[in-house]
Amino acid sequence: MSRETVTITDNRTGKSMECPIIKGTHGPPVINCQSLYKEMGMFTFDPAYVTTASCESRITFIDGEKGILLYRGYPIEQLAENSSYLEVCYLLLNGELPTEEQMKSFQASICQHTMLHEGLLSFYKGFRHDAHPMAMLVGVVGALSGYYSDLKTDIKSHEYRMGSAIRLIAKMPTIAANSYKYLIGQPYVYPQTNLSYVANFMNMMFSVPREPYKFNETAIKALEIMLILHADHEQNASTSTVRLAGSSQAHPYSCIAGGIATLWGPAHGGANEAVIRMLQEIGNVKNIPKYLKKFKDKSDPTRLMGFGHRVYKNYDPRAKIIRKSCHNLLHELDATKEPLFEIALELERIALSDDYFIKRKLYPNVDFYSGMILSALGIPLNMFTVMFAVARSVGWISQWMEMMEEEDLRIGRPRQLYLGAAQRDYVPMDQRT
Ligand code: CMC
User: Fold this and answer.
1) Which of 89, 201, 331, 368 sits at a 20 to 30 Å CA gap from 376?
2) Quick one: 233 and 347 in the same domain?
């Protein structure tokens, strides 16, 4: 801990206080202002948490200016190049890369827990035939908490917390694939323990009785990379939701359901779906300039989906990796001339050389390309954010575990700037005008 401080002085009264400055391994130092209210009688105001570090964490680090993303200290580029998604899961959960033996045992535990309790299958039937699969994911993952109620009471044991993490990572692809099968009216496909994590997911999504799924290695590799890139992203909206819910010591799966709900919005994980809808709306390469104009003159309050990021202001390192993977896949599938992809590639080219986007540091983010990859893999549009949720479940549960292991865990409780009515007297209904 550093002993440097900053002095905060209230210019109205001259009263001062010293706030300790804490330096992390990387990133800007933080000002510990926890005693501000006690000493000065004031709160800080930081809507949307633009400048507030909400917790200590040792899992993921992002440098938005330099375009750096580290999982447990390892650069995302090295992990995407060399790791499998499950190896990254092990790393995020345990803090270290696994030995061969540890990896085998981790893989075996994941395989062992891929099946769902049969009772859980009846939850799908409660949804309308056209329900969004993200709605199903929120519901079914929340319902998992009813099947593992021991986790609520044993939440303080590391073993139980790790058990809950393994079950979640194992079951997410099954829950996701089942929601798709339910929507298209096909029978659920049970998980297969002889397949890799990604191959098993593709099989559960696309095989039908007597018609096995034809595996394509480039497709499996592209999906594996996409999962690695989305595995964690420090204190984003959905992860912060999981942490806030978890701080009340709620059941881990209900906290994860909260994270999934937060991910759904188009400003977060819903962007990958929104990108494709936008490309469909553009419809033709020649419409791009007209389409871009409305963002620039702000005549349309919507945004160019898949562009911009709260943290990355130079480039999104995930986008750089997935862009390559996306181009490889499109070439391999001979899909570069597909109208949608043509529009996407041209939009990328024009926006990257346009002053409006350059000045505001708006670059394609990971979801610009992940939408295209998923589309090329034949994953239906309304399943895109579900894929993001499958990938991110390890990040959510790792962050939840880290928080639960804190010695002085306190319930999260933000303050507010109240601008409502001052106190007034109740008026009976018959006297109101
Ligand atoms: N298209 C057009 N203009 C934009 C965009 C965009 N996608 N993003 C930001 N701007 C403009 C914005 O209008 C503002 O302009 P001005 O200074 O003239 O008012 C300026 O850029 C700064 O915007 P901001 O609202 O301060 O940026 P933010 O950091 O609050 O927003 C964001 C970040 C990701 C929500 C936003 O860029 C956005 O809505 N992007 C599109 C949605 C998207 O792709 N989301 C996925 C993010 S990556 C996946 C994830 O990590 O969840």
Assistant:
1) 89
2) no
* Residue 74 CB neighbours (<10 A): 15
Do 120 and 255 fall within a single domain? yes
Neighbours of 240 (CB within 10 A): 18
What is the Cα–Cα distance from 84 to 228, expressed in whole angstroms?
8
User: What's residue 297's pLDDT?
Assistant: 80
State yes or no: pLDDT of 122 exceeds 70.
yes
The Å distance, Cα 310 to ligand 1 centre, comes to: 7
**Atom 45 (ligand 1) nearest CA:** 267
- Say whether 309 is catalytic: yes
Number of domains in the chain: 3
pLDDT for the residue 152: 63
Residues 145 and 116 in one domain: yes
Q: What is the mean pLDDT of residues 295-304?
A: 78
Rounded to two decimals, the pTM is 0.92
For ligand 1, whether the C-beta of 305 sits within 6 Å is yes
367 catalytic residue (yes or no): yes
pLDDT above 70 covers a percentage of the chain that reads: 99
Ligand 1: centre distance to CA 148 (Å): 39
The pLDDT tens digits for 354-365 are: 899 889 888 888
Query: Quick check: is 311 in a domain?
Result: yes
Q: How far is the CA of 288 from the centre of ligand 1 (A)?
A: 19
Section 286-304 average pLDDT? 83
Residue 102's domain comprises: 75-266+398-404
For ligand 1, whether the C-beta of 303 sits within 6 Å is yes
Q: Which stretches within 192-270 are classed as H helix?
A: 197-206, 217-229, 237-246, 252-263
- 220 shares its domain with 344: no
CATH of the domain at 304: 1.10.230.10
| 301 and 206 housed in the same domain | no
Instruction: Report the distance separating Cα 361 and Cα 312, nearest Å.
Output: 9
pLDDT at 337: 76
In the structure encoding, which two tokens stand for residue 396, read together?
């959510």
Domain-embedded: residue 419? no
Residues 32, 79 within the same domain: no
% of the chain surpassing 90 pLDDT? 72
Answer yes or no: are the C-beta atoms of 69 and 230 closer than 8 Å.
Answer: no
Q: 176 has which bridge partners? A: none
Mean pLDDT within 149-162? 82
